């Protein structure tokens, strides 16, 4: 393996705990080449500004950096469209902002509110599985706030806008230059992250299976941290490969194979946890080590652009180990071996990994959630700015930017952003103190800003906290470069704290999203997906690929619900009384998914009339439980008779009782334990 692969593999294993909670960490998206390109453009603009003694060119450097932040990756057509959109929006926004500031406080107030509101209307809040590129409308809103610090007449505003547009145009031109293996590099590293975490999950499974009584906490880590981290890695990998536009389908095939192997490991883990028996070291443990060798072989074949024959040989060896064995572990390994065998057979296919066709037609209808969030954020930013003016702070726009960043559609996300930004700003502030103390002139300051630009862009899709650690000193140095202010660090601390506090208060008071409804929707979605999977397994008759898709949907829904749980925990102690009951619902859903994964391997293709009746009953239970969660009433839940004596049925009955307890805390339901 090359150095980048080794680093990503190591970091992916070490950061499972972070992604298993709320703080996503994506080492496979560390973009060194993008950081270097951005740094070169910013350095060139600074050099021109210093040589020609033309301070307005500093806005071009800022524009180049922001344009790079908006780079969505993927096809050059998509990248050009997104970055060009920001260039135009940013140019108009900063020009109008600098001109509006020329008219005094009234002009600032009207300009700040109206332009921020219009820019934020272009945002979207689609769910994702990790850090995403900055949206053009959001960065344009920041440009509005920054522009207020530099009042200009009409001609001066046009000059600032022209420099901004020129900096963006230069960044776009350099960013779109062809770079060898740029597209496939991210996809390859995404696969490395997935297989590294699969290997770590396999390690945990072998360790748990070798102990007679590993304890509930270790199994809980396996069922939550391992499973959720791999699920997010799989879905993020699919997004990255589809977005890259790469014509090599190997990454997509590897991710599909990894998904099937992941399903097999879930089934093995659930079965082993239920039985409480250790693995047979001479057969079962040896077979699991054979799977590990096969995973390593697949990764090496991708890394060295092999012909896939080594994967076929590893798959044949794994299938040989499981041949003639009827135990669940060997059935699961047989499924994993079949996935690797199919991967080997399709290794040299040259189909596109990305979805083809023309882009979908865009709708210009503004969702109500975006409209209300834009309105309340604009009001909060306005209050934050004028609070700084009232307090007599030199740079009140810093507080406005802090408010803009921490404001999120959901209160829990606001707290999350405050935590990440707060920790990052404190650590970044120490870097800034040293940098500002060392830099004695603009040349030295520019020499510090340029490498920080490279680091910030390289980290922008890895982790928000790390991103802020280096963004803070870069932004402070850039501010001091454009407009030198005494006591810069103290001003930054005051404004960051004030802006974050105003953002939190505004998130709580200005038309807050009803969190209970949001949580109820997440629970209902997880119930629907998991019971749909259980119902389909019980009914039989579906193709394995269809069952795989349903298991994937169930895993995604459960992972999102667990992330909601972690987010609620960040909101504070006032909500903690609900969390134990929500945790019981999550545990019951995970048990159902694991039991269904086991049943998928053990049950015959056609389950007969009994299976169909059971499937119909599970669909009815799903509707009733979703209604109970959304209405906080037990009226919709009927009494259900147990249809069988197996893990899946016990899991469904436990889910019913967990939902009863969540919907009505007065319910005295007790979670059952399945018979061993």
From TrEMBL:
Compartments (UniProt record): Membrane
Main localisation? membrane
- Could you list the residue ranges that cross the membrane? 80-97, 133-150, 156-179, 370-391, 423-443, 449-472
Q: What UniProt keywords are attached to this protein's entry?
A: Membrane, Transmembrane, Transmembrane helix
Keyword Transmembrane assigned to the entry: answer is: yes
Q: Name one Pfam family in it.
A: FUSC_2
Q: Name one GO cellular component term.
A: membrane
Membrane topology classification: Multi-pass membrane protein
Q: Which residues form the Integral membrane bound transporter domain?
A: 384-505
* Protein's UniProt name: Putative membrane protein YccC
Q: Give the classification, highest ranks.
A: Bacteria, Pseudomonadati, Pseudomonadota, Alphaproteobacteria, Hyphomicrobiales
């Amino acid at each position: 393996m090359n150095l980048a692969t080794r680093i990503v593999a190591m970091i992916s294993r070490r950061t499972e705990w972070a992604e298993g909670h709320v703080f996503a960490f994506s080492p496979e998206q560390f973009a060194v080449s993008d950081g270097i390109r951005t740094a070169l453009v910013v350095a060139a603009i600074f050099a021109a500004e210093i040589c020609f003694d033309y301070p307005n060119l500093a806005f071009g450097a800022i524009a180049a950096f922001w344009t790079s932040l908006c780079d969505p990756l993927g096809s050059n057509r998509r990248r050009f469209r997104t970055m060009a959109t920001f260039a135009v929006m940013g140019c108009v926004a900063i020009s109008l902002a600098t001109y509006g500031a020329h008219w005094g406080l009234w002009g600032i107030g009207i300009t700040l509110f109206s332009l921020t509101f219009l820019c934020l209307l272009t945002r979207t809040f689609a769910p994702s599985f990790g850090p995403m590129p900055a949206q053009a409308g959001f960065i344009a809103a920041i440009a509005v706030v920054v522009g207020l610090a530099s009042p200009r007449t009409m001609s001066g505003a046009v000059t600032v806008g022209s420099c901004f547009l020129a900096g963006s145009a230069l960044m776009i031109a350099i960013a779109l230059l062809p770079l060898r293996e740029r597209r496939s590099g991210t996809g390859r590293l995404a696969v490395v992250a997935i297989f590294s975490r699969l290997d770590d999950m396999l390690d945990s499974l072998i360790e748990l299976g070798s102990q007679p009584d590993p304890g509930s906490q270790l199994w809980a880590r396996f069922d939550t941290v391992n499973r959720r981290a791999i699920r997010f890695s799989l879905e993020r990998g699919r997004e990255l490969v589809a977005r890259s536009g790469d014509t090599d389908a190997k990454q997509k095939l590897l991710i599909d194979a990894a998904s099937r192997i992941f399903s097999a490991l879930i089934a093995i883990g659930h079965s082993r946890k239920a039985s409480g028996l250790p693995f047979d070291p001479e057969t079962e443990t040896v077979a699991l080590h054979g799977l590990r060798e096969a995973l390593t072989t697949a990764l090496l074949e991708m890394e060295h652009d092999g012909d896939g024959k080594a994967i076929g040989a590893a798959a044949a060896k794994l299938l040989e180990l499981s041949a003639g064995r009827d135990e669940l572990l060997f059935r699961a390994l047989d499924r994993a071996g079949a996935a690797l065998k199919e991967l080997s057979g399709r290794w040299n296919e040259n189909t596109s990994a990305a979805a083809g066709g023309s882009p979908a037609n865009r709708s210009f209808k503004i969702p109500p959630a975006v409209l209300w969030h834009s309105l309340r954020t604009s009001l909060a930013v306005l209050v934050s700015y004028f609070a700084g003016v009232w307090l007599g702070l030199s740079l009140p726009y810093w507080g406005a930017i802090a408010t803009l960043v921490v404001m999120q559609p959901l209160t829990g996300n606001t707290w999350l952003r405050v935590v990440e930004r707060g920790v990052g700003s404190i650590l970044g502030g120490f870097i800034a103190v040293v940098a500002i103390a060392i830099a004695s002139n603009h040349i030295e300051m520019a020499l510090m800003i340029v490498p920080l630009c490279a680091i910030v862009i390289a980290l922008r899709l890895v982790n928000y906290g790390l991103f802020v650690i280096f963004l803070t000193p870069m932004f402070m140095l850039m501010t001091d470069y454009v407009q030198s202010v005494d006591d810069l660090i103290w001003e930054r601390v005051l404004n960051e704290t004030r802006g974050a506090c105003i953002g939190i208060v505004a998130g709580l008071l200005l038309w807050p999203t009803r969190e209970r409804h949001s949580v109820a929707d997440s629970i209902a979605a997880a119930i629907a997906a998991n019971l749909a999977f259980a119902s389909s397994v019980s009914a039989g008759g579906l193709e394995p690929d269809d069952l795989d898709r349903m298991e994937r949907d169930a895993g995604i829904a459960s992972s999102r619900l667990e992330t909601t749980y972690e987010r609620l925990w960040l909101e504070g102690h006032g909500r903690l009384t609900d969390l134990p009951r929500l945790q019981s619902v999550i545990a019951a859903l995970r048990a159902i998914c694991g039991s269904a994964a086991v049943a998928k391997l053990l049950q015959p293709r056609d389950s007969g009339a009994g299976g169909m009746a059971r499937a119909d009953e599970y669909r009815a239970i799903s509707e009733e439980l979703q209604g109970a969660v959304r209405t906080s009433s037990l009226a919709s839940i009927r009494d259900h008779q147990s249809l069988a004596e197996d893990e899946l049925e016990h899991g469904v009955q436990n889910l019913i009782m967990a939902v009863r307890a969540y919907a009505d805390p007065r319910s005295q339901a007790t979670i059952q334990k399945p018979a061993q």
